Amino acid sequence: MHAEDVARIRHMVDAAETVGQFMFGRKRADLDSDRMLLFAVVRAIEVVGEAAGKVSEETRATSQDIPWGAIVSMRNRLIHGYFDIDTEIVWKTVSKELPDLLPRLQRLAGKP
């Protein structure tokens, strides 16, 4: 794997772990009532997607268990639809999708 890809995947891991820290002990309703939390979580998800978009096709091909296209699409939706963020989708992302994705990214990045 290219060194640049390792760095980008580590950025994805760091941002996903940060989301977990932001959301620890939080509930779905917190995304509606805490605007700062929502902005912070959305920004971290954007970082995951931005880094994913820069991972080489070669690395993507060798790690097909990572939904690269969906991750980048989520980033694009958040960046371009910032005025219309669906907090239900954000909740699903932070409560289910990122926790499922994180161990795969950690393994890919060589983190225990």
**What proportion strand?**
under 5%
Shape verdict: globular
**Number of DSSP strand runs:** 0
**Ends apart, CA distance between termini:** 17 Å
* Number of discrete domains: 1
Largest sheet: none
Averaging pLDDT over every residue, what do you get?
92
Rg for CA atoms: 14 Å
Order of helices and strands: HHHHHH
Helix fraction, binned, reads over 70%
Tally of alpha and pi helices: 6
The SS-based structural class is mainly alpha
Low-confidence stretches: none
Protein architecture, described:
The chain has helices at 3-23, 30-33, 35-53, 57-62, 68-80, 87-109. It is an all-alpha fold. The protein has one domain. The mean pLDDT is 92.
